[in-house]
Amino acid sequence: MMRQHTRNLTRAISFQAREAIKPKLYIKSGALKQVRHLDLSADGRNLVMTLSDDSLRIWDLSQGREVVRYAVDGAPPQAARVSQDGRDVLLRNADGEASLLRLWPEQANMAAVTAAPQAHALAQRWRVTAMGFGRGGAALILADQSGGVSVWSRDGLKRVTQDAGEGAAAVALAVAPDGQRFAVARDDGSVEIWSLDGGLNIQSVAQWTLSEAPKFLALDETQAVALTESGHMALMRPGGEAKWRYQVIPSAPAAMSALGGEALAVLDSERVLYRVSLDGGAQKIDKTPIERATGVAMSPNGGRILLAGGKGHVAALDALTGERLVSIHSTKTGWAALDGQGRFDGVEAALQDVSWDADGTVLELDRFSKGYFEPGLAAKWLWTGTARKSTLITQPEKAPEAGIYLPPVVKLEVDAEDEIAAGAPIELRIVAQIQGGEPGEAQTPRLFHNGKRVADSLLQAEGEEVHEGLRTWRWRAAIAAAPGRNALRAVVAGWQDLLGQSDERIIDASSGGAPANFYIAGVGINEYQGPELALNFSVADAQAFTEAYLKHTKGGGQVQSVRTLFLDQQADRSHITEQLAKFRLTTKPTDTVMVFLSGHGKVVGGEWYFLPYEATSLRNDYEITKVGVSASTLGAHLVAIPAQQVVLIIDACQSGAVVDHFNHAAQQRRMLRGLSQDTGVHVLAATRADQLAPEFGDLGHGLFTYTLLFGLKQDKKGGQHADRWPRDGRIMVSELKNFTGYYVPRLAKALERKYRNEGRARGVDLATSAPVTPTGASYGKDFPLF
C-alpha cells in the first residue's frame, strides 16, 4: 500500500489559496549587498557598481548581463569610474589612493583571457579627490587635495601631464562625452575647463569663481553645470559668465548624474529623486522604488534614470514618468534582471535568490519561466546605443504583482523501501491539486529520476476528482531503480504554466552491475547542400571536441568510450535522428551521453531548429521546419535515452545582419533553456556569426568550441583549466558551463581589440553587436564529465 494518503490534502488548503494573491518580490537574506556607488560610461554601455562587500560588478548593458565581478584587496573602494570601452575601471579608496583595474585582457590568448583582472596603483603625492577617463579611455585624469590635475597614459601607466594646484582641494571632476574636455571644481568655488589633445597635453579653456563651492559637476561639449550644497545650479559656457538657477531642489544634493541631453538626475539628502532640466525646472519623481537610495546615473539621451540603493540592485526608471522599467540585481551567486511586467533574465543560481512571496509561499523566478523568461531583458530596456530593434519575446497578460494563482500542490507517494535492489521497480503515484485559476485539463506531470526526466509513456493517468471546488489529479508510474542513489521529484504546471513541485524522495539501491560507459555523438557541417550556408569551423569543432572527450574519458574504469561522428553530407536529418534513437537501445541509466552539434541554427515560429546537411537556405522557413531537427525532437529523443547523465552542446551559427543577431541569440537561449528545464538534460550552447568574423580563423575553431577545448587542457599546476569551482581533479558539467560563460566573451573582446590594432577591423564589433555569449542551462543533476 501507499505509505501516504491524500484524504487530508484538500483540508490543508484554505479558501484563500483559491483566490488570486498579489505576491511581493522576495530576496533571500544575505543574497544582495548595498550598492555604494555606480557609474555609467559616456556611451551608456558599461555600468560599474561598488558593493558593500567591497566587490565590483560590471554590467554590459548592450548585452544586458553582468560581465565581470572583482573582489577588491586592501582599502574598500569609495568611488569608481568605468571607461567608455569598458576595458578599465578607475578606483579611489577612502585614503585617496587611486588605481587602475584592467578588466579585460590586453593580449588575445587564453593565458591572458583566463588571468584575473589586475589593479595597478597610480602613485600620487597628494590624495586623489576626483577622477575620470578622457580620450575614449586612453587618458586617466586625476584631481587631488592640492587642487592639482594630472593626466596619465592608460597604455604606459605613466604621468604625461601635470598642473600643480594652488591649495584649494578639488571636489569634483567631469569629462565631456567626447573625452576631449574635462572640468574641475575646487572648494574655493573655482571651476575650470581644460582641453585634452591626442598627446594627452592639457590647456586651460575657461575659468569661473562661483560664490558657493560646487558639490557636483557635469560637462558636455558646450557647457559645464555645477550643483551646490544649497541646491543652486550654475551654468557656465566658455566666454560667458556663470548663470545661476536658484534652489532647483529643496535640500542638499546627495548624488548627481552626468548630463543626459538637456537634463540631470539628482538625488537629494532625503533620498528624493528629481529630474532637473538646464532651464532650472525640477520634476520630482514620485515612484522612486528603492529604499535608502545611494547613487544615480542617467542615460546619454536622457530617457532613463538608474537608481542604486540598499538592497543591492539598480532600478531603471523612465526619466519623465518615473515608471520602473527594469531592475538589475547582482547577487552572491550571479545576476538577475526583472521588469515591471514580471519578465526576468539571469543565471540559474541567482534566480534561486530572487523570488515571489505569495502569502508565505516562496516561488522562485524559475517557476515562471514559460510565461516570463526574457533573454536580454536589461539590454532591451536600457541599451539605446544601436538600432538593433530588439523586441520583447514574452507578452504576459499581467505582472505577478497584479495577482497570481498558486501553482498546484504536488505530492510524490513512493511505494518502496528506503533501500532496494538495483533494477527493482519503484512504484509511485503523483498527486496534484489545482489551487486556482482556470486549469482546464491537467498537464502531464514531469517526473525526474536523478535529475533527468522520465519518458511520459511510463506515466498512467488515474483520473480526476473534484471536492469542495478543488480539482485533484493522479498519475501512477513504475520505474526501475538505478544502482546507488535514486532521487525522485515531480513537477506539474498550473495557472499560466506556473510550476508546482513535490519534495524530493530518495531511494537507495544496491550498487553493482556493468560499469558505466561513455558515448558521444558529434555533428559538424561546413558544406551544406545550399552553398550560401557554407561555414568555416564546424567540422574541425566536431572532430576536435569529440577526440578530446574520448581522450579524457578513457582509462577511468569504464568498459568503453564510444564516438560516432557525422560530418558534412553524412550529417543529414536521418543520420542524426537515427543515432539518437540508437542511444535508447545501447545505453543504461549509469551511462553518460554527450551530443555535440555544430552548424546552423534558427528559430522559426517559436521553435528552435538545428539545420542538417539538406538545408539550402536560412530564408526558407518552410524548408527549415521540414528538414530541421527541432528542439522538441531533440528533447523527445534525449528523454527516451535510458542514460541519466546527458549533455547537449550546441555551437550554432546565425548568418545575416548583426541587428537581427541579438534577437536570434535571445530566442535560441529561451528555447534551449526551456529544453533543459523540461527534460533535465544539461544544455551548453552559443550562437556565433562566422561570416561576420572570418579573421577568427586564427583560432582554427569557433570561439565557443575553442574555449571548451582549452578548458580540457592541462594547466601549469597539472590540472585542467576548467577545474576551478572547486579545484578537485574533475570537471563537473556546471564548471564547464561557468568556464565558457565567463571566458568566451572575454576572448571575443580580446580578439576584436587585436584586429583593430592590426588594422583588420571590419566595421563590425562582434563582441558587442553580435556577442558570442554561451547559454548554460543545467536543470539536471550535476555530474563529473572528466
UniProtKB/TrEMBL annotation:
Ranges of residues in domain Peptidase C14 caspase: 523-717
Organism the protein comes from: Magnetofaba australis IT-1
Gene3D superfamilies: 3.40.50.1460, YVTN repeat-like/Quinoprotein amine dehydrogenase
Origin organism lineage: Bacteria, Pseudomonadati, Pseudomonadota, Magnetococcia, Magnetococcales
InterPro entries hit by this protein: Caspase-like_dom_sf, Pept_C14_caspase, WD40/YVTN_repeat-like_dom_sf, WD40_repeat_CS, WD40_rpt, WD_LIS1/nudF_dynein_reg
The name this protein goes by in its record: Putative peptidase C14, caspase catalytic subunit p20
Domain of life: Bacteria
Gene Ontology MF: a single term: cysteine-type endopeptidase activity
Repeat positions for WD: 28-69, 163-204
PROSITE patterns: WD_REPEATS_1, WD_REPEATS_2
Swiss-Prot/TrEMBL GO biological process terms: proteolysis
Entry keyword set: Repeat, WD repeat
Pfam family, one: WD40
